[in-house]
Every structure is written in structure tokens, then in C-alpha cells.
Amino acid sequence: MSWRHNKTRALALTLGTVMAIGSLSWAEGPASSSGEGFTSNASPTEAADKIRRYAQELRHKQLTKATPTPALPGTPGPMTKRDGIFYFVSWSIPDKLLKGYMRDAYRLGATVVFRGMVDDNMRKTIDRTKALALELQKEAPHTTIDPVIFRQLGVTTVPTLAVVKDQAAVLVTGAASLELLLNLLSRADGRLLPLQTWYEGQRRSWQMGGPVQEPRPVIPKLTGIRSVATDLSRYPIQENDMEQVIKEKIRQVDWPKVRQELNQRVVERLHAGPNLPLTPAVEARVFTVDITQRYDHDVLNQDGTAAVIKAGTEINPLAHVTLRHRYVIIDGGDPQQVAFAQRMMKQYGPLAVKVWLSAGDVAAVAKQLQRRVYWVQPEMVTKFHLAHVPSVISQNGPVLKIEEVAL
Description:
Elements lengths: L2 H16 L6 E2 L17 H23 L17 E5 L6 H14 L2 E4 L7 H15 L6 E3 L1 H7 L3 E2 L1 E6 L2 E6 L4 H11 L4 H15 L17 E4 L6 E2 L5 H11 L2 H18 L6 E2 L4 E5 L3 E2 L4 E2 L6 E3 L4 E2 L10 E6 L3 H14 L4 E7 L2 H8 L3 E3 L2 H6 L4 E2 L1 E6 L2 E6 L3
Helix pairs in contact: 2-9, 6-7
């Protein structure tokens, strides 16, 4: 790759960064263009409604494609891809015991699974989980909420230890040590004996001050979903199925009201514009801005094998490119500034002037000017040292000229 090619690519990158104009725009009138499925003369409310419908259709397609039909509560169903060792627990288990179970799960490398939230409240659940993690410190296991696997394995009481492999599983329930539960599992399926032996060695090593370095045995191939019968005591599952809780909350939502509020927020947002703190100019002022960019580190190519731009390189896009437009920045809520933009378009030609709004109703201004208008982005205010409106940005050789106009 030649240095000329590298320099051209760097120039394009710099120009794209510096001169990106108006990531959100609204236009009405003959000069407006329309995107797929959206008409250029749509009102803000109509546009919001179309966006909402599109989002709903997309979400429906994703859910239809990705979400399996749930089994009845307590009924084992087809297993999705969930290989590993899972320790099912509930917030009904006393804290002292729960912490012990979680510590043992960490040493076994098992995932601790809850069916739902504390009192159906996410904030309470996060706080309770954080408190346990702080007490367990480095021995805090991976913890998740997964009501689906509870249903798939038919787990109705806890604690339950399950070994899962390729849509098959063997599980045992009982308020006992993991050592005993693994012993019961290995008796029921001798292929799990290496796992039990490994865990016993792991437990002894923890008693001597640290874990063994030997990796955990690979989970063997299992057949079907088998539950080992025991007479051990167990705890009820206190929390509700989180998936059902969420579905019920969704069912109770007043969707017409939500849609109305969303539409109203969109209208208000479009009416207010970006609402950036650029105050009216009280006196005329002209200054220049050098947009030369210096690269302090090498910029590598896509595969990282060569430097596209060397450290220390300085690139000024305006040394190679001539701007074809004047950029007029106004407060769209000020009629005088909108009239100023109209005069600039008449003076230089409507195609030679781009209008940006620091505030104001985008749709109303676009309709009045019969031209697409853009929102000023906060990074543009910083990059171009903008402070007052109206301002006119144009090129003056290798620098940008910023003219603040007092009306």
C-alpha cells in the first residue's frame, strides 16, 4: 500500500469525522427525499407510529424465531443447548445454608440457578445477590435466573443438583452437601464417578488452603432426563417463574397509553430540537478554526500488519478538499434567525447553503425553508468552538471561518 493511498484514506477518515453533518434530520417540501417505507411529508406523529410498527414487527419475528414453546410448569420439556452442571436454589433457603451451597457450587464449577426474583422485584434481587457475592468474595459462583431450565428439568423443589449434556440430564434433590449429592448421582450413573472423585480431591485441597490445579472431568454422554429418588429434606421454591411474571406485567400494560405517550415524546423532541446552549450573538465576530488532526499513535490497517498512518502525522482535510457549502447554524425557534437563513439561501443559492438547528422545531423550519435541515451535534459545538447563533461556517483556505452574526 503506497503512502499516497494511505494519505488519501486517512484524509477520508478525518473528513468523515470532522464534517459529519446532522445525524438526525427532518424534511418536508419538494426537495425532501424519502427512505424505504417512509414518506417525506409524514408528520412527526406518523413517523413515530411507523417506527413503532416496524419495531413491533421486528420483535415479533425475532421472538417467533428464537423462543421455543414453553412447557407446562413442572413438566420436563425438550432441552435447549445448556451443557454443564447446574445447582438449583431458591430464596426460600436460609441465608447461612444458601451461602454454603453457593460456595460449594463455586468449587464444583456449577452455575447457581434461581427461578425468579425476590418479591418479583429486580432491585431487591440485585441487592440480595450483591450482598451474597460480597460475603463470598472470590468464592462467589456464576449465578443466573433461568425459569426455562427449571421447567425443562421439572425442578419443583430445591436444592437440586443437575448434570446436563446434549439435551439429557441426571439430577438429584436434597438439602445435603454437594459431596453426598454427587455420591448419589454417581451411584445412579457410574459414568459420573470421575466427577465425584475429582470434587472430593478439590474439597480436600480447599481444606488445606487452596484448590487443586487438575481440570474438572469432561461431562460424559447421558441418556434422557433422569431424577434420582431420595428421602432428603428439601425447600419449596419461593419465587415466581420470572418469565410468567414478565408476561403478566406485559399483559397489564396499557399499550394505547404507552403508544400515545411515546408519540407525544417524539413530537416534543422534534419540536424542541437538540436544544444546545448557543446564545444569540450580540455583536459580530469572525474567527478561524484549524481542523488539522495529529496522530500520536500508529493507525494500523485492518489486519494489523502495517501502519496506514504513522505516529506524528498531521493531516488537514482542507489542504486537499474544498467545501462546496456554507453551513448556517440558527435557533429554529427565533423567527429572525430563520429569516436570516432564508436570506443566505437566496444570496448564495439554496443548494449552496446547509442549515443546522441548535434548537427549534425541525419539521416546521424544514417546511418554511422548503429544504432539509439538520440538528447540530454536541461534538460539533466543541470541534468548531461554536458559542453563538446565527453562525456561518465556510472555508478560508486551510482553515474554517466562523462568522457570528448579530441580528
